[in-house]
Write a structure and sequence with these properties.
By secondary structure, this protein is α/β, with parallel strands linked by helices. Helix content is 29%, strand content 18%. The longest helix has 18 residues. Bound molecules: beta-D-glucopyranose.
Amino acid sequence: MNKKLRGRALVPALTLAAFIAFALASCSGPKPEIEQRIDELLARMTLEEKIGQMNQLSYDAGAELADDIEAGRVGSLLNIVDPAAINALQRVAVEESRLGIPLVVGRDVIHGFRTIFPIPIGQAATFNPDLVQQGAAIAAREARSVGVHWTFAPMLDISRDQRWGRLAEGFGEDPVLGAAMGSAMVRGYQGESLAGPASIAACVKHFVAYGAAEGGRDYNSTNVPPHLMRNVYLVPFKAAIDAGAATLMTSFNENDGIPGTGNKALVRDMLRDEWGWDGMVVSDWASVTEMIAHGFAADAKEAAMRAANAGVDMEMVSGSYLQFLPALIEEGKVPQDYVDNSVRNILRLKFRLGLFENPYVDTDAPSPLYAPEHLEAARETARQSAVLLKNDGVLPLEGAKTVAVVGPMADAPHDQLGTWIFDGRKEGTITPLNALRDLSGITVLHEPGVSYSRDRSTAGIAKAVAAARRADVVVAFVGEEAILSGEAHSLADPGLKGAQKELVAALAGTGKPLVVVVMAGRPLTIGDELAAADAMLYCFHPGTMGGPAIADLLFGTVSPSGRLPMTFAREVGQIPLYYNHNNTGRPFTGSETMIDDIPLEAAQTSLGNTSYYLDAGAEPLFPFGFGLSYTTFEYSELSLSSGEMASGGSLDVTFTLTNTGRREATEVAQFYIRDVSGSISRPVKELKDFRRVTLPAGGSARVTFTLTAEQLAFYGLDGTFGAEPGDFLLWVGPDSSSGLEASFTLR
Ligand code: BGC
């Protein structure tokens, strides 16, 4: 059947938020109190005061800042975290400026404030949104305690490229996982009410497609076409906005010739008019005036015009609004209305945060920084974020008495925190070395072998090998320093740097059981080390409590349960490599001739004509969703409530999950579908749901995923969002490349 002939079951394009906004605008009843207060305030503001609200400055202790605040030229500050300084400047805004409008204070609180949680890509590996929400709530509590009201997180940029340094800050390659994690973070930061004493406003960023940078080089151009934009890159944003995200940041990249900060079609037309969102849009750091370098504005005045017209409410640091908006309005190049609406959005944020009632931070309140329950939550998140990639039986290390602890990441308290830790402290970090030394009953022999991740010197390797020979087991901590990932920190070759490869090879040469623990900001190409190791535990930079968490996993206090949020390529040349790709007309079969098997003087067409690399095939090192534990799980007895789904209906997909091993552990059961044919080609697999299921040894459970027709919907050829009748495949299983398969038909 060609289902495309049968039309699309449309999902209403008018979202609930849009409906509410529409209803509010069209009904004649009283406006909500905040809107009334905004109206009253706006009516009293001069044009200069309005434009002042749209100006965000980075804190520097210079005296003029207070003058600017007093004159109403500043709406927000970022990068100020000293409570006394915040209160002093807030006092100027509230008590000395003409209208007493409080400042909103922003800060990059990306994966914890003082208590640092695993980097977001590691948090994604937990497949546990509740835990991620808890971490964000803790970060909010710590940040608000010093006077921060607003974080520039979560970063929702889908990334399919291991080279891109900022993937560390996001949730990986999958839109459904990204949507779940992003919404969880928003709920965590913002709490029940933004005005709560432990809440901060979230900022979803970077709008949009910033993670699709060509070649994985940060800030680079992107070329995401409209369907892919809607069906992949915008999915986490829509979900996080529906979860109540208070603010949004535009991106640095230009997509198809239009920089994010000047993209009216996406910001004003889609985000505002189509989605009906009433939050606040901030530019990225100087991304307004960077439109000059992009070649999208001739000068700062034109840049200000483009950003304001696109719908950017607040300009981060580059000052062009303050300087040029008065003239642009006068000249009719920016409508006065646009400015009024931007100011409304900014004031709405301040009212929602309760800043008019509670502008000051209580400097006498007990500090929650590093509270014991925060450290415990960070430890649990680090445990759940680690992914066991290989285990020949050496883990857990239950019988080991003497452990050689080797490698540059074993005792790197700053580096294990990862990127974006403005307010983290290496002094508060517990490294694996310290955690292992604290265990009773084992002797630790510590020899780094290589002193930091880029260190090319092989001079220390002999000592590490000597320690390995004296030990029962070797644990090598390798990976990346924090500085090798994050903003502007992309790599052309994301493999182990320095002499780390030599170190691992030398340790393997001792014949001692070798456990490799990787601590990195991205998936590294670690095929050689994987082959050399008896076991490999992959930890994205795990944060303050990484050491104890890793010790818990190595010694089997808990079983690993993290799963890969990104596909791991075998080699850099395979990138971009992601599981949810569209198919070629000639898919790889796995039985192709590889380069070493090509006979001499082969006939030209004898290799098979499928889509692969002669020297690397087409398969990844590990698929999305992969991860082992200390037990084994079996999937069986898959059944569907029906072989058909009605348009607008749903289907229950049930299976038995059995722990067939000898210890309790948690499996992340994953549910994928494939839309067999569509009005546009659909991915070969798409994650639709996942569930963490904990089972005792020998235990089993029936697990049900409910699939709705809305989950089958996508933006199709005619631009509408809907599900298309026809045949679908589905899988339940442990990762994106295996599992039990069934099919159904959407009527
Ligand atoms: C980054 C943003 C960040 C901002 C403020 C920019 O360079 O791209 O993600 O929030 O700086 O620090």
